[in-house]
Design goal:
Blueprint (H helix, E strand, L loop, with lengths): L2 H23 L4 H56 L15 H13 L7
Helix pairs in contact: 1-2, 2-3
């Protein structure tokens, strides 16, 4: 089931519940009315959350190319520092292990943007 199908199904169930509520109002069946109201509210909330999830996924999809461009810019700047001042003068390198925090950041950022295991 896709997100669109799930959202559509939740909206359909919510409308069906509303129809049931309207049918029961004349019968004064308060217990069943409350049950159908709960069903309706739950499916409206679920549809809202699924819609939000869909929108967030789209925003992430649109942002990934910008993230890759940014990581490339950071890498270029890091290389310039390394070539002009040397890695030992960069504040992002671990003095003991000489591990570059920028390179670790770049690797994680690219893995995320390319849909690797760090993907949200």
């Amino acid at each position: 089931m896709t997100l669109d199908e799930a959202i559509k199904r939740c909206n359909k169930i919510s409308l069906e519940a509303l129809s049931e509520i309207e049918d029961l109002v004349g019968l004064s069946d308060h217990y069943n009315i409350k049950e159908w109201q709960t069903i309706r509210e739950n499916h409206q909330q679920l549809a809202s959350w699924l819609t939000e999830l869909k929108e967030l996924r789209e925003q992430i999809r649109k942002a990934k190319p910008m993230i890759l461009d940014y990581s490339y810019t950071v890498e270029v700047m890091c290389n310039r520092i390394k070539n002009t001042m040397g890695c030992e003068n960069c504040t992002y390198c671990n003095e003991e292990t000489h591990d570059c925090e920028v390179r670790t950041y770049i690797a994680k950022t690219r893995a995320f943007a390319k849909g690797g295991k760090n993907d949200a």
